[in-house]
Amino acid sequence: MLFQNFKPSRLTICISAIGFPKKVIKLSKSLVGVANYTKFGTLSNQSIITDHLKNQRIDEARTVFDKIPFPDVYQYTKRITRYARNDRFDDALQLFDKMPVKDVVTWNSMIKGCLDGAYLAMARKLFDEMPERSVVSWTTMINGFLQFGRIEEAEGLFYKMPSRDIAAWNSMIHGYCCNGRVEDGLRLFEEMPFRNVISWTSMIGGLDQHGKSEEALILFRRMVGCGVKVKPTSSTYCCVITACANASALYQGLQIHAHILKLGYSFDAYISAALVTFYANCKKMEDSLRVFLGKLHMNVVIWTALVTGYGLNCKHEDALKAFREMMKVGVLPNQSSFTSALNSCCGLEALDWGREVHTAAVKLGLESDVFVGNSLIVMYYRCGNLNDGVAIFKKIAKKNTVSWNSVIVGCAQHGYGMWALAFFNKMLRSMVEPDEITFTGLLSACSHSGMLQKGRCLFKYFSENKAVEVKLDHYACMVDILGRSGKLEEAEEFIRNIPVEANSMVWLVLLGACRMHSRLDVAERAAKCIINLEPHCSPAAYVLLSNLYASASRWGDVSRIRKEMKQRGMTKKPGRSWITIRGWRNEFLSGDRSHPSSYRIYQKLEWLGGKMKELGYIPDKRFALHDVEDEQKEVMLSYHSERLAIGFGLISTAEGSTITVMKNLRICGDCHSAIKLIAKIVRREIIVRDSTRFHHFMDGRCSCGDYW
Description:
This protein is mainly α. Helix 17 (269-281) runs parallel beside helix 19 (300-312). Residues 2-7 and 13-43 have low confidence and may be disordered.
């Protein structure tokens, strides 16, 4: 155009500048010269600056800006805003101070930049220095206080406002709900002079997020049924469907779904995800899948809802298949996707699948993410591999309370009490506040490691620390510590002195300790307390007392207890063990011969039995809880469910590999002694997780030190 002697207009230069692609930086710079040549500097420079800022070229924008002799307020404000959004707070503040004239928009932009950069004190200082404030100024500062949890200061500003628009009211309601003060939010909602759809949606979502899902649904009915001239948006319906999911309100959810279809919102990604979750929570997984299959989804939120839904319905294999399919079609998982997939790995106790999900997280650079990392720690320790869980913990960049709790509880479950205490000390040095779960994990670690005095010190420390509420679960843990240490009378006295009335669970812990130490006198008193508290309690108390009588050969009392259980319609939960190999879970009952590999399993156990006797093994017949001949007791002990699972593991896995077995009840003393010898004979590590903890057997020893 220039070569043909046509002079560009202001509009020509503006259109050229705004339309530049990001990579054509040289051409963008050349337009500055054209603008100067044609004497249209101010307008064209403004367009070029806009283009540079839009494409994150901050320094280039600054170069152009510095050539403007008298920049206006708008140009200053544009640059300040962009500096703040790019975390260049010092540059923004310097430019703000250089401004000869500032309008209210400039002040608001600078305050917003301070808040976005977490400079709350500076934002408040600027707010106080403002010569005049608009409603936006007040609302921005209120939002800042709410963002940092400073509710009282936000309230003070809100009530000082000379006039309030609906945005200010909505901000305050939203802030109350986000900071757990939903009742205050509801009170303010009722005081509002008028409400828009954001007001209703914020309040419905706030109620639902704080466990008041039914109240949220009542509020929605009030919104649509009382002549309110506000139409729900897709965001409103998303909140309402989520409330239906949390309240398991199937009928109302179906009605809402029908409205969504009529209004054409069904293709909204977030509504689809909410519907998938709703049907999954209501145990209607087929309908959940039908919603998902309604169209080809490439949105990670919907796929994550499906994976989570399968997990909620204990369809963990389907959840992991959906996770694989998600990646296959090119949808990249986010933190929530990985968390749901890893939860399903925990549900299956499938370490191989867990490693597969871990590999995907590494490829996407999410291994050190706090949410994914926390889920990986839990997956590894629940699947029997604490060392890898600790390794993941060390890689997490910014550890939160959940990270520390996960590793402490993992150490407790595996019987590494000193590790748990060491991590707790590091947690305190890192200025991370412990909570109720930390307390439970530490007491559990002391219990499983026989650390009586440390347990007492920790209980005293947390009892005096008012930041953590001592609950019945913590008292039960302390009873367990005393009971396992043989301090049964002290444990009983401790229960009677608990400030609140002990429930049956606390007494059941004492009864379990009596079983360990064969103390029938204390056990009978504990069982009586349990039955008095809960006449229709679970069979656990009867089973424990029956086993105590059986160990003492009091078969008449055993018969009486079993007869009483039968009259009350109670059945004893059968002991079962399982082992997962190549993604398949293989379950066994005591004396089970239903497995396709039974012949080879029994053959292997018979061979091991001979080798064990050569090493001096003598079956402990006290753990055969039936009134039969000694020879038959010995046979019964030889084929307990955990031994069958170990036998299958030995014939199905490579020599030298680790075998991990899960059991639903506490491992018996005879099996514990036998597995130590089996591990020594086969020269393998055998991991057994029973109802209380993990046991790592290797070379004739167990990690519990025979203390469990």
